[in-house]
Amino acid sequence: MLTLVPYVLASQGTMLAGRAGIFNVSQEGIMLAGASVGFLGAYLSGGNLLQGLVLATVTGALFGLALAYFTTTLKMDQFVVGLALFFIGLAISTLLYRLAVGVTLTPPLIPTLREIALPGLSHIPVVGEIVFRQNVLVYGAIVLSLILYLFLYTSGPGLALRAVGEHPMAADSLGVNVPVVRYVATVVGGMLIGLAGAYLPMVYTATFTDGIVRGRGWLSIALTFFGGWSPHLIFFGALFFAAVEVLAFRVQVTGIGVPYQVILMLPYLATMAVMMPTFRRLQIPAFLGKNYDRERRMLL
Amino acid sequence: MAERALGPARPRRAGVDAALSYAVSVAVAFAAVGVFLAAMGFDVPRAYGTILFTSFRTANGFAQTLLKFVPLLLLTLAFVVPLAAWKFNIGGEGQLIAGAIGAGAAGIVLPGLPAIALIPLGMLAGIAGGALWAALPAWLLYRFGINEILTTVLMNFVSFGALDYVTTEVWPDPAAGHPTSVPIAVGARLPLLLASPPLHAGLVVALAVAAATHVYVNRTTGGYELRAVGANPRAALLHGIAVRRLSLLALVLGGALAGLAGALEVAGVHHRLIEGVQSNYLLLSILIGLIAKGNLIAVPPVAFAIAVLDVGARAMQRTMQIPVEVVFVVEGLILIFVLLSDVVRRR
Question: For A92, which of B150, B329, B335 is closest by C-beta distance?
Fold first, then answer.
């Protein structure tokens, strides 16, 4: 359950922007920046995790804003801008950490998020212990997935958002403000990805290291594809990703005669393996990765 | 057709215009970070002096810069060649490691061969390793249409495991504190252009490969088809170009170039397999490729400039305790400004 959260948050963030037609490829950078800022926010305030979470969310929002501005307003290529932002996120995450903490022999630590047992429910045998005794972000990720599902499929703005990703011209002709929708979706998406980054030091390591994200940002893109860019499927897909990660960790600890390096490769290989039969059949927003220019008649 | 902010098929602009926008971008990026550094209380002129001139003050600094320039140049080509077909190869790191393992294996397993056979064999093993590492994502794209950004990146993480395995289990050097293999045979090592400071012959190889790549992409029919696929895949398909097969080829070619970079690092610099051989070359190479806007003529000078900044930044970190990442931020800003200047000129 613990390992689920970063995947769910980052993928839902990716999905939200993608559904509006913005293909964000800077998750790894945003998560690193979120991890760094979130850690520093908590560390410098003497362990105030909330402050860290808020700052990480703001950082993610800024990245989302930059992505939206460069692609939607300036019409620059989404992959190119995404890679540039990935680079910048990576650079500032380490830079901020070095400037604020410097080089230390013992890593600076912050407290990790406490688990909250839901009264009543956590006493259910087996299931109660697993599902209802978690930190606040686990509950948050579950509720978020539910809200996003309801928002996208049952609300007017959700419909508008999906329309912008599928056919911005049609949406525009119906009076939907395409740039505004794309801005909002990308900024909120960035917030979720930043939050996903902050989760890592606050639950796993209690400190920040350069390699803390370790490909989870990229994996979350894979998960978003795997989940067909829809919130409920992403949630269930995340269960699979989390399970592989936990499995890899368990096998590494107990050992089963396989070199542990092979186990370390497992999440990445498994991801590629599951995409093989499924990728073609997946739903992908028709305008994913394409900018919309209302002054241009011809699309595609 | 959606307009693409960079791409090889763009019309030729006056070189002066482009040079000017680069100069302004670089100046603004340095100025912005300079203000930040000054506010932090650092000695900005001295810091920038160190960053810019370390490479040129001593022979050693210059050799250092060229040693970085070689893998950066090749890895950038590994990114830019698929980019001509508008495919994003973010797996240069993994392909470099696979190439390093290939070259290392040749140098360790076949110590008896004479240098004249062993050196080319090592290079070929490296090229094959890198090409193979890129072949899986390329095949997944070809066969299943899986986004290549994703798969090439995931293969990086697989390569870390593979490198760890060969340096700790297959050919470990127990004397080293860090996961490292036993050294490769003396006959597998590249000859030196310069004995002191050491500078290996890979520089010549890299420059020759860069020239050949330019000729292939911009002066041959195959390269033209590649660029046609990148500029407008639908039009290319309608004109009978095998779009998917060319995309596959472009990625494998990129992998081969990255593999060669890995082989040169092993045969020329480390003389053994060592964890961390990939350094931060992947990130810098993507940066170089994007700053050069995929233009193969611009890649070598930009790669050299980034190598200068990298060597200078490390010197600055040593002498002034300013984190080396400051320069990454400068570089990231340069990239943003270079891309922005395109937008400005388009208006």
Answer: B329
- Phi, psi of B89, deg, nearest 5: -95, 100
Q: Please write the tens of the pLDDT for every residue from A77-90.
A: 898 899 899 999 99
Using the Cβ of A290 and the Cβ atoms of chain B, whether some distance falls under 8 Å is answered with yes
Domain-by-domain residue ranges, chain B?
65-312
The B residues from 18 to 77 touching A (CB cutoff 8 Å) are 40
pLDDT-derived band of residue A27, with 50, 70 and 90 as boundaries?
Answer: very high
Query: Crossing angle for the helix pair A178-199 and A216-226, nearest 10 degrees?
Result: 130
CB spacing of B339 vs A80 below 8 angstroms: yes
- φ, ψ of residue B192 to 5 degrees: the values are -95, 140
Q: Tokens 């992908």 identify what position?
A: A284
CB within 8 Å: A87 and B165: no
Helix (H, G, I), strand (E, B) or coil at A118: coil
CATH number of B65-312: 1.10.3470
List b or e across B318-336, with b for residues whose CB sees 16 or more CB atoms inside 10 angstroms. eeeebbbbbbbbbbbbbbb
A88 touches chain B (CB under 8 A): yes
The amino acid present at A260, given as its one-letter code, is Y
Give CA torsion, residues B176, B181, B182, B187, to 10 deg. Answer: -130
What are the structural domain ranges in chain A?
4-114+132-217
- Tally of CB atoms within 10 A around A172: 16
**Interfacial B residues in 124-183 facing A (CB < 8 Å):** 136, 140, 144-147, 149-151, 153-158, 160-162, 164-165, 168-169
> A123: pLDDT confidence band, cut at 50, 70 and 90?
low
ipTM value for the complex: 0.84
